[in-house]
Write a sequence for this structure.
């Protein structure tokens, strides 16, 4: 099995927390409490296993179906409020972490797209991240996941409108990027 450096660090942190909690459980209630906690963890894992497998299948399909080319065509197609809503939703659909979508955004630097589109895209990715939805449904509950999605849905759109109002429709990522360069 091949793990990335981030995955190794996450595993070390999680297993470190497990070790600390096992020690605390031992001092609080001995081996009986440790056994009870492990049984509870096993039951939770078994109850969630089928939904987790389905969640990973959905996430895998999203990663394959929604490519950078498809997203680029969608972002170039719309302007104004349609662009804000579309870029927020595309941000939520975009697969992967920041190491994937920030270079994707930077690739648009020379395409003269307004900054507000990028703002709603980034906030859409951070707030929506629809690939996370199956995990939330399987691990927490469908009701809570849907409520969280409904409550947070306007945020990337509001940010896009604020960016459009404050920065304007003509300012592009390339202009901002060049503005930060040293002369």
């Amino acid at each position: 099995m091949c793990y990335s450096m981030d995955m190794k660090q996450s595993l070390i942190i999680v297993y470190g927390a497990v070790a600390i909690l096992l020690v605390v459980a031992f001092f609080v209630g001995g081996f009986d409490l440790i056994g009870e906690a492990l049984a509870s963890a096993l039951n939770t894992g078994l109850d969630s296993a089928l939904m987790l497998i389905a969640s990973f299948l959905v996430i895998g399909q999203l990663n394959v179906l929604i490519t950078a080319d498809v997203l680029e065509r969608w972002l170039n197609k719309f302007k104004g409020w349609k662009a804000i809503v579309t870029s927020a939703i595309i941000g939520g659909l975009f697969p992967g972490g920041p190491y994937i979508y920030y270079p994707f955004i930077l690739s648009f630097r020379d395409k003269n797209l307004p900054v507000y589109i990028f703002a709603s895209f980034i906030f859409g990715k951070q707030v929506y991240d629809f690939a996370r939805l199956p995990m939330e449904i399987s691990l927490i509950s469908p009701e809570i996941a849907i409520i969280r999605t409904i409550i947070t849905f306007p945020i990337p759109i509001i940010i896009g409108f604020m960016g459009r109002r404050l920065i304007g429709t003509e300012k592009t990522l390339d202009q901002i990027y060049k503005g930060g360069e040293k002369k």
